[in-house]
Amino acid sequence: MPNKKQIIDLAIIIPTLNEEHFVGYLLDSIIRQSVLPKEIVVVDAYSKDKTVNEVKKRQKILKNIKIFRIPRYTIARQRNFGVKQTTSSHLLFLDADTELRGVNILKSYFEEVERKHADIAIATNTPTTQDLKDKVIFRAMDLIFKISKPIWPIATCMNMYVDRDTFDRAGGFDDSIAVGEDFEIVQRIVKNGGKFTIISDPKIHTSPRRFEKEGRIRQVLKFTKSFIRIVKSGYRNNPIEYEFGHFTQDNQPRKRFR
């Protein structure tokens, strides 16, 4: 890890499950940042591919990476476990298929949450592809988050910042929730007086792989059905299945645009 780079009081937690085609892009983008987090924790749910090897390849440069493996249950449990392995005052949860494109993304993100005194925050997600359909879907998702914020605050954990004291007081993610645990923690924190902020800039690049895998229309309808079920019956009664990772040789990610 280069000594000349500033180390900020931040822990990045990354849950993984069969992410060999993505996690390396994320870690390489962290390496290129103008500031570096104090801690990086990868919590793997016993991937069957080379995810762990991809992480270990970067340990010579990012010496503060810790890798843990726990049995698969919910992604919320992986995130909670990761937090327990850290001591930083600030937490940033990133999905393994996100990227920090630009050397000052992490610095700008951290400065924004501190400037706005956010207890919990997300940055706008934008697709890693140049496909117009993906851009429209991500833009629509961003608008939904902004419109619903005053009345029913929601956000995904593709990227999510949480102040550690706020996270601890909330008791972390509800690891009994299989889908929507990110929506739920936002609402719980806001209900208890926490400040929720949506950062327009910088943006975090996120893979649209789930839309590519299941089809864009089908995936949008799936999320809509899940949303309606959550509103009507609560988070624990959501029948929608969600499995992150699981890319096979026949289901490779698209070529990256850099």
Short description:
By secondary structure, the chain is α/β, with parallel strands linked by helices. It has helices at about 25-30, 50-55, 75-85, 105-115, 130-150, 165-170, 180-190, 210-215, 215-235; strands at about 5-15, 35-45, 65-70, 90-95, 100, 120-125, 160-165, 195-205. Mean pLDDT is about 85; it is low at about 245-258.
Give the CA-based shape. Answer: globular
- How far do the termini sit from each other? 23 Å
How many DSSP helices?
9
Order of helices and strands: EHEHEHEEHEHEHHEHH
Descriptive report:
By secondary structure, the protein is of the alpha/beta class. It is 37% helix and 22% strand. It is built from nine helices and eight strands. An eight-stranded mixed β-sheet has the order 3-2-1-4-7-6-8-5, with helices on both faces. Strand 2, helix 2 and strand 3 form a beta-alpha-beta unit. The longest helix is centred in the C-terminal third of the chain and has 18 residues, at 216-233. The two termini are 23 Å apart. The model is unreliable at 244-258 (pLDDT under 50).
Topology:
Elements: E1 6-16, H1 23-31, E2 35-44, H2 51-57, E3 65-69, H3 75-84, E4 90-94, E5 98-99, H4 105-115, E6 120-127, H5 132-148, E7 159-163, H6 164-170, H7 181-191, E8 196-206, H8 209-214, H9 216-233
Parallel strand pairs: 1-2, 1-4, 2-3, 6-8
Antiparallel strand pairs: 4-7, 5-8, 6-7
